[in-house]
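1st attempt posting a full record on here, be nice pls
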Amino acid sequence: DLKEPIVRVYAHRVKSIEHLVYHFHLMPKVDPIISSYFMQAIISSEKKEVSRLENNLSSNQTVAVGPFIVYSDEQKHKSIQSEILLVKTHKWNGKYSIVGGRLEKGEKLTTAFSRIAIEQTGLSGVLGNDICSFDEISDSGYYRKKTSRIFIDKIFRVKDKSVALDFRAEEYIWIPPNIALSDLDIEPNARKTIEIYSQSYY
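the predicted structure (as tokens):
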């Protein structure tokens, strides 16, 4: 008929639950085996909850990094329009979009833009100004319920148009942004970015 002094435990400050486990047996009238089992159960429950929250955070929240690839030939006349790179991909049901990928754990945002551009197009360039950041548009084709995806798009200027697509896209096109908006079937998130770029920088 051993009773654990639970009230006494919570009435005194402790450094941590782990510290309490390993020193709980020193308290008077406490069976060390029962006390250790009791406290280990608390720790196990706490760790499971933390793990569950971390898994939900990693699976339900994503930062999508979009290098908005822009080409302009400085040798040509200034009236020549700059062109942007758009890719057609099955991910967006055959619609055009900009290049983009997921920010990896521990990765710096500036590093991610260059990595994604090189991986998906083979292009190196210079990271430019911010264009926009926004929550994914619902019902945009790739939208998934109970997930949170944030798009962060920045200008990525290149001096070469030799694209080498990886497995994530089937086709690409270099095109002035105003013509892209009027002539191409573009998924809503990319269309929003192109519209903001056209208004702010074009």
